[in-house]
Design brief:
alpha/beta, 15 helices, 8 strands, binds flavin mononucleotide
């Protein structure tokens, strides 16, 4: 996820049971221009493997060159984004914009498959809008290019994040006898029960989780535990929450440097501390302090002051990002 799935975030997801991680999407044009921001997003680490690097673009040559650059960083797979709905991407012929031109999508995918020795996967949506839900045709044609798996977010581009994800079409793709590559379902999974229910009902090979992991990386281990035992893990204790928050902060400092690391970490505290009563003052300190030691000290105070606090199992609230991205 853009501005979310950076190495510090991926590290805490990995610690808490994510089986496969992806980088945020990276512009192919940025990579070939050698833009620092794009290059930095290629950073992957051994401890997070298996990890996929995701690229996007609307030009065959650029995508092919970007694929070669990705190759050199040695991820486990290379993913192409044909799902991003935001105007600056989709309306410039990349991301979900490519769903309007399936022959182009196939040429772009073909160019990537031919330029890399890595397994190539694709992430996309059901179609551009309600009148053009072409994922069944798209899936067959993508498979024919040689991709190794397909992840489908059960919404159209014009839906952005509105309404509920429709997994019935994802299931139709999965149950198409011509389809033999793994199909990953995506959209609105926010609890272990829903993950298991959707996996069984729609028969997908894997489940991809986005928003539910933001501030709650424990979702992964909770799902695995529920799959294996049919039982719920207790919610993470205050000690675990603070430990994960600290690790996220320390990894951010390490990877982004002190200024950006501290600034960008500020958006995460609210999520990590959700459910704690009278937390406002502490939160204010966390988002205003500038020294790592002071922030770590506040986190330690929270840990000791809320020691033994019994968290309730509350539903994860999935933010409706379409308001932010509306065209
Ligand atoms: C902030 C944000 C950034 C995202 N960035 C990406 C991205 O870079 N690549 C991608 O494939 N999907 C991206 N997505 C979409 C998610 O991967 C996922 O398809 C979508 O959120 C629906 O799944 P969910 O209900 O589990 O969140 C992003 C979503 C959010 C909320």
């Amino acid at each position: 996820m853009e501005d979310v799935s950076d190495p510090p975030f991926r590290a805490v997801c990995k610690d808490n049971g994510a089986h496969l991680l992806y980088t945020e999407f990276i512009s192919s044009e940025g990579l070939i221009r050698d833009a620092i921001k794009s290059r930095k997003k290629l950073d992957i680490f051994d401890y997070e493997k298996p990890v996929g690097i995701q690229i996007f673009g609307g030009d065959e040559d650029s995508l092919a060159m970007a694929a070669k650059i990705v190759d050199a960083t040695n991820p486990d797979l290379l993913d192409i984004n044909f799902g991003c709905p935001v105007k600056k991407v989709a309306c410039r012929g990349a991301g979900a914009g490519v769903l309007k031109d399936v022959p182009l999508m196939i040429r772009l995918t073909d160019a990537v498959v031919k330029s890399t020795s890595l397994p190539v996967t694709v992430k996309t949506r059901l179609g551009w809008d309600d009148d053009s839900k072409n994922i069944e045709d798209v899936a067959e044609r993508l498979q024919d290019t040689g991709i190794k798996a397909l992840a489908i977010h059960g919404r159209t581009r014009t839906q952005m994040y509105k309404g509920e994800a429709d997994w019935t079409l994802i299931a139709r793709v999965k149950n198409n006898p011509r389809i033999h590559i793994p199909i990953f379902g995506n959209g609105d999974i926010d609890s272990p029960q829903k993950a298991v229910e959707y996996k069984e009902r729609y028969g997908v090979d894997g489940i991809m989780i986005g928003r539910a992991a933001i501030g709650y990386p424990w979702i992964f281990r909770e799902i695995t535990h529920y799959v294996e035992t049919g039982m719920h893990l207790p919610p993470p204790s205050i000690g675990e929450r603070v430990a994960v928050c600290k690790k996220h902060l320390l990894k951010s400092l390490e990877w982004k440097g002190p200024v950006v690391g501290i600034n960008e970490m500020r958006r995460h505290y609210t999520n990590y501390l959700k459910g704690l009563p009278n937390i406002k003052e502490y939160r204010l300190k966390l988002v205003t302090l500038k020294e790592p030691e002071e922030i770590l000290e506040v986190l330690d105070q929270i840990n000791s002051n809320y020691d033994g606090y019994e968290f309730e199992r509350t539903p994860i609230h999935l933010i409706n990002y379409h308001e932010k991205c509306a065209v």
